[in-house]
Queue: 3 jobs
Job 1
Amino acid sequence: MTAQVATRIGVCGAGAMGSGIAEIAAQHGADVKVFDVSAEALKGSEARIDKSIARLVEKGKLTGAQGDEALGRLQWVSDLADMADRELVIEAVIEDAGIKASLFARLEEVLDDRAIIASNTSSLPIGRLARTLRNSGRFCGMHFFNPATVMKLVEVISGPATDPAVTNRVAATATGWGKVAIPVADVPGFIVNRVARPFYGEAFTALNEGAAQPHEIDALFRANGFRMGPLELTDLIGQDVNFSVARSVYDSYFGQTRFVPQLRQAALVDAGWLGRKSGRGVYSYDDGQSASEEIARPTEASDADRDLAKQVLGLKAGTLLESGGVLIGLTRGRTAASEARAAGKPVVLFDLIAPDSDGPNGYSVSDESAVQVAQSVAAGLGRAAVRVADRPGLIVCRTLAQIANAAADAVFEQVADEQGIDSALRYGANYPFGPFSFADRIGRDSLVSILQNIAAATGQPMYSPSQYWSAP
């Protein structure tokens, strides 16, 4: 039987996240009450939602009547007793287990026994939060992503005691609000904050190794469909916030090496270089430094360059094409120098190449004699080329392979299924494709080989392929 959508919603916490949740619920027909102990917070929430609705009306996404109706379904209250008639109450207060526990205890005093309590926590275990409730079966996680009015994903987390009917109804409610509701096991980081860790960690590893300049690293990811590169994104999120999540996930998994925090990021936090909010992070926002700094494109291409580029686009990892005595290939997790030693000829290796992009490509060479061939390929593609330090897996391929590896671990440990994880990364992190879609794109056997080669070349067990890839 299809679960019924909850229509009487309570939101505890009138900050940006709570206001966003309340707004999206009201837009989809729910009767919503927003609670906060701070009169100033309530006033700010009302103003924030008024402004947001007005903007939607101005853009034609809502009619004036629809905007008025949505606002008419909202109330702001300072007495928790006003939540007594709510079917579903979503907690969106500070990430402090003690403060949340106090709120839950008070909610249980006023709510009907059948009412659901959900936490928007992004990091605290649902089982731990539920311990203080008299009825822990009515409790689950309902993790929205910021801004809640825009981001599609809602992670619906079942604790050990959660009644399946509760998560079914919460998922149905989120779906009714136009969200993509993904069921998730109660593990540290849930899906997105766990699986996405290598996106940031690998970028700081590359930066620490001097593999490329920050703006080049970010540009390589944008060329592969990402809206923002990992370094500029950490500046936007806040280096302190992003590093705190990295530490939390790492500690929660008792030092599992796939989630190791990066010292280069820790140094930024120690220096107070927190990103946009402090005026400086990876980039300096006071002197106009930008992640979108222009990377020079090659000169006019010849017909031979265009023909060579077309052949390179058709290559698979591990296949080498010869041109002018130089071997050309896509990374398979080895360095260009090691490939050259095995083949007895100079080698140029390219990072992932998105055929429908006009952004830059990364490459490394075994020696200077291969640089001209790399530039010829770039010219034939009509795209800029970024020479990267000769490192196993280069930058983008290595990062995406490790994200896929973390995703595979999550399926193996029954956190969620492949489709759920792909959807979570697409709708919760704005990835252009999910990690399993990437694995299928390059071939799962090829992915395993790339990871094995990176692990061997770096001596780091964190790159060893997940057991999931070899599971029956």
Note: The CA atoms of residues 200 and 230 lie 5 Å apart.
Job 2
Amino acid sequence: MARITIEVVFDFVCAWCFVGKRQLERALELYRKTYPGGKQDNIVVTWRPYFLNYNLVGNSVDKSELAKTKLSDMDSKTQAALTRRMEQIGRGVGINFNWGGRIGNTRNAHRLVYASREKGQEVEDALVEALFRAYHELEQDISDSGVLRTIAVEAGLDEQQADEMLGLSSLGEEVNAEAEAQKQRVGGVGVPCFFVQRDEKVGGAMDALELMDAIVRAKQQAKDDDPS
């Protein structure tokens, strides 16, 4: 049995990061089904913060208003084609993208994920999934403390734990520091970015087979490094 680590550098407001999550899930499923002994390997996924800072105002604003600024160099026809393409890609991996709702700062959402690591991977994964779905499918404002509290409870935390995590100023400093470190680590690749066994970097919402290949290489390396 090998221990394989996968670190995902991402931001919740990034649609490609949600697609990348689905591709990673497919890659892990393929690996466990097809690679000899894959079911027995311990694959640890950690979600690392990255701040895209789509909204520089600070307070929540309508996503449609922000899109007008971000896509101002495109005509309406090109914008519509881009939206249809993203929706098509989403449907292909089981995501129903919706474009309404509001967008604020994602730091508190990342703080919850950071703090949830001590609860185990199952809770961390559930929280990341719920936050992605809340923002991209359910059109919820994941910068709102009430929304975050509800999502955290549904993912396995209690309200007191969620409030404590959101209220710790030191936790915010730790997340900010990690986000800055990940920005340097990713470099110009952008997000999502996957690091397999810390060293192999796989940038973008790659095809599941490409991610699986990286996992297989990590497995082979682990076998080569095992003196037994």
Note: The chain has nine helices and six strands.
Job 3
Amino acid sequence: MASKRKRLNLKEKHVKLRETSEIDEVLMKWFRSARAKNIPVSDVLLQEKARELGESMGLETFKASNGWMEKFRTRHNISFKQICGEEKSVNPNEVTDWIGRFKSLLKGYNDKDIFNGDETGVF
């Protein structure tokens, strides 16, 4: 009786591993695509996408639980940090033009008289 239970547990684990690897593969493709488009992806969004994928793939036993999400993030070395900067939203030609105009604005000022706004104590 115990060996039969053990075999069933091994089969269940095998099915869960297969389901997890299928979901992982598709979810990572989606995650990379979203990040390449500079779309911020939160833990909640990623977990909801995993649930949707599980349903669409017909994986009835799959649950995108908090524990599963944590293990997924660990497996794929995903950490959620704040995205800073607007690098991808700026036209490089406009940057070049602005640098030229900025240099002409600075003529007549000494370097010691030029400050960033956050260096003034106003902010």
Note: The CA atoms of residues 68 and 76 lie 12 Å apart.
